[in-house]
Recover the amino acids of this structure.
């Protein structure tokens, strides 16, 4: 079945869906919903499954820190002193989001193809 999309565009779409799902769902829910559908597609496209799962988890962790919902920030908000506002916390995670995007770019820049590299 030809979608007219390149393998990288399909991979990007899967990771984007995981990113958006991470805003509102917990880790287990996202994994149980997306991975069974995505893994056969990833295999069919020729990407390494372990490499994809690393990229998937980096995207998921980034979505947990990213507004609008940022579940990780709301968990932390429950234990912080009242003088620390959500605005402070949102600005506080910006360096971590940037670091995770750099890691994601590095992971995506060096894909492991089915070439026996890991064997």
């Amino acid at each position: 079945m030809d979608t007219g999309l390149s393998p990288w565009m399909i991979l990007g779409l899967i990771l984007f869906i995981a990113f958006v799902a991470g805003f509102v769902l917990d880790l287990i829910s996202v994994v149980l919903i997306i991975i069974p559908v995505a893994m056969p597609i990833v295999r069919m496209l020729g990407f390494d499954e372990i490499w994809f799962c690393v990229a998937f988890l980096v995207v998921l962790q980034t979505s947990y820190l990213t507004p609008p919902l940022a579940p990780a920030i709301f968990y932390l908000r429950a234990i912080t002193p009242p003088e620390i506002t959500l605005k402070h916390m949102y600005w506080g995670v910006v360096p971590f989001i940037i670091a995770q995007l750099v890691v994601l770019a590095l992971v995506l820049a060096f894909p492991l193809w089915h070439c026996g590299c890991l064997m």
In short: The chain has one domain: 7-109. Residues 12 and 98 are 18 Å apart (CA to CA).
